[in-house]
Amino acid sequence: MDRNIVYPGAIPLDTDLLSINRNTMIALGFIIRATLGTGTVADGLSCSPTLPASMSIQIGAGSLSQLSVVDTSPYGSLNTDISDPLVKMGVNLTPRILDLQAPSSSGTSINYLVQANFDESDQGLVVLPYYNAANPSQPYSGPTNSGSPQATSRSQAVQLSLKAGTPSSSGTQLTPVVDQGWVGLYTITVSYGQTAITPSNIASLPTAPFIGWKLPYLSPGFGAGVQSFLSSDNFVVPAGASQLEVELWGGGSGSFASVTTSSSGGGSGGGYARKRINGVTPGQIINVTIGSGGAAGNTSGASAGAGGTTTFGQYASATGGNLNYLTSPTSPQFGATPAGIGINGDLNLAGSAGQSATLNQGGMGGGAPMCGGQNSGTTGVGGTTPGGGAAGAGTGANSGTPYDGAVGGSGLVIIRW
Fold first, then answer.
1. What's the CA gap between 300 and 285, in Å, rounded?
2. For 333-359, b where at least 16 C-beta lie within 10 A, e where not — what string?
């Protein structure tokens, strides 16, 4: 950061103080840029009903960072600087109340848009005393004794606007388009006859640039939010997220039942993939499919099954553990193989194959990456989640008694942002 130099006995200049302020603002702007980037970022600025409830909402204290330039107009005696870009932060220290109205026609509703913008303006107009060299005991009022007021501060704040949509039949009303240079924060839906705003009327826009307590440009990892899936569902990208990190495990294969003459081998583990995904948008829906654990073979002749494939949209997948083509219900001693693999990840790992059986002991189930295999017992033992292969079944210490196999461990998806 640039620093001014002053000397004992030197006549102080107004630019000495003005340069300190400008240099500090520039330094802070580059700190903001290093942590938040150059895109618009909002922090705080919560939206809630008033207390007591009324037809008004309250926007809480907060800030808005936005790319601008150093100064669009002269700053005291310092010249305009519009050639150097700078990230600036507007701050609102106190809440702001915005008033809404219900539509006047029965059966209609209206959507209001709360939008924000960085606002820089000169304020604090005062007629300042000036030094009168001709008569120091009688100061001038304003520059050259003109009596003209002058601004005493350059404010950087968050400008808020409430934009009303067009009343329409309830369920068909549209949210107004965000104005050029502004960012949308919230939608408030108001119905005919409504007399008070409730929390259910307020929704954050999926594109609202809330920080979400995340500093992506520091890139220390992910941890602002974590969500896991053990069953298939949809993942909705949360507000403020632009990057995801996803880990996937495929399902482990099941194990065969033993037969009177042979124990069964262990099932193979599922594969693993990890991927960093950039460019997602808040509100985006991504399908998550969890690979199930493979079916268990039984003494009635049912075959063991392969593990299912786990997918995260079209971004990455992890296949399940497979069955060894040498293994069959009547000759099940070989361990299930090959194991599953990761596909399209930044990191793709294969699981491990199940172990072959011994004379009277089932084979150990193969592990998925970062998940151990399953030790065998007399009967088959289910695979460990995520993605572990099932352990094989024994024959009861040479008794020749067959036992059922077991199911493989199911897949898993973990998402961080």
1. 43
2. bbbbbbbbbbbebeebbbbbbbbbbbe
Q: Which among 355, 353, 348 has a CA at the least distance from the CA of 338?
A: 353
Report whether 87 contacts 149 (CB < 8 A). no
| Residue 294 neighbours by CB under 8 Å, 6+ apart | 251, 252, 253, 254, 267, 304, 305, 306, 307, 308, 320, 321, 323, 389, 390, 407, 408
SS3 36: helix
Residue 26: its H or E element: helix 14-36
Length of the chain (residues): 417
Shortest CA distance to 160 belongs to which of 57, 241, 239?
57
CA distance linking residue 369 with residue 350, whole number of Å: 7
Q: Which residue ranges of the chain lie beneath pLDDT 50?
A: 214, 216-221, 325
Query: Where do we find the tokens 């024994």?
Result: 394
The tens digit of pLDDT for each residue in 130-163 reads 999 999 999 999 999 999 999 999 999 999 999 9
pTM of the model: 0.55
- CB contact at 8 A, 212 and 239: yes
pLDDT tens digits for 36-74?
889 999 999 999 999 899 999 999 999 999 999 999 999
Dihedrals phi, psi of 20, to nearest 5 degrees: -60, -45
- For residues 56 and 386, what is the distance between their CA atoms, to the nearest angstrom? 50
